Amino acid sequence: MKKTITMSALALAVSFGAISCKKKVSDADLQTQATTVVAASPTATIEVKEGVAHLGGTFATQAEKDAAIKSLKEIKGVKDVHDMATVESVPPPPPPVETASAVDPMIQQKVQDAVKDFPSVKVEVVNNELTLTGNVSSAQARKIKESVDALKIGKYNNNLVVK
After folding, report:
1. Of 34, 46, 95, 106, which has fewest CB within 10 angstroms of its CB?
2. Max Cα-Cα span within the chain
3. Which residues, other chains included, contact 71 with Cβ-Cβ below 8 Å and sequence gap of 6+?
4. What are 116-126's pLDDT values in tens digits?
């Protein structure tokens, strides 16, 4: 029995010795592997200290950054990854170009529809104001004025010539 206990103790000591003698990966080796991982992003940086990877710099997209972090964590010997990297911000699109006309195109279209029965009348924007021009009879002028006023568009220039 004494022999069995001695053999068990010896086996236990050998197994602890084998575990503690496990080869530790150097920071230089980890640095080399980590540099390979982030090489796809030229503005990204990586530094390994005591088995911890410190990720910095800039990535083009969040997906690229996440993939790099995942790959770094998969390197054997890397204990942790400290993420200090940023993602490039996409500049906002330029504001839409505004036309010089202060007249809403929808209003202009409504007025054109209201005077469509009078081919001699033109609806134009002159000096940022809606303007009616053309030659009409007095009855036509009255009907046009009633039609346009019914739209409640506000101020407009009535430059119709009544014959």
Report:
1. 95
2. 133
3. 37
4. 888 888 888 88
